[in-house]
Amino acid sequence: MEHLLPLEGECRCGKVGIRVDAPPILTMACHCTGCQKMSASAYSLTAAIPRDAFSVTRGDPVIGGLRGPDARHFFCPDCMTWMFTRLDAALPFVNVRPTLLDDCSWFVPFIETYTSEKLPWTSTPATHSFEAFPPPESFESLAGEYAQSIRRY
Prior knowledge:
An eight-stranded mixed beta sheet has the order 6-7-8-9-4-3-10-11. It is built from two helices and eleven strands, in the order βββαββββββββα. It has one domain (2-58, 92-144): glutathione-dependent formaldehyde- activating enzyme (gfa) (Alpha-Beta Complex), CATH 3.90.1590.10. It has helices spanning 33-39, 139-150; strands at residues 7-10, 17-20, 26-30, 44-50, 54-58, 62-67, 71-75, 82-87, 93-96, 111-113, 128-129. It is 12% helix and 33% strand.
């Protein structure tokens, strides 16, 4: 996937642009009811991008959805596209909606979360499934396994 970098993207109306300069740490599909409602779909897709490899290149996204200290969801102020999520400041990544990138053909969810809330008819090709979020101690090994898997591209 590194041969595709940098990746550029934008919201639906094009007023907010984003750029990704490094491969994701992990890719995910989240089946929680909150993501179902925010995405108006069966699940949301996420590419966890290293914080220093993600930038807003155009426009000023606004916070919408959840507005707590642990998760801030950013949207285009005009078309209201859900673009990315900044989680707890201690986490070294930004969750980017990969379908906003000009080329998202590389994206496959590596893990799926909150399968306890998934709609009965949904399925993903994720390698790992979790009833909620993976335990924090598993993130390092999952990220290492994901990094090995994308080296095959």
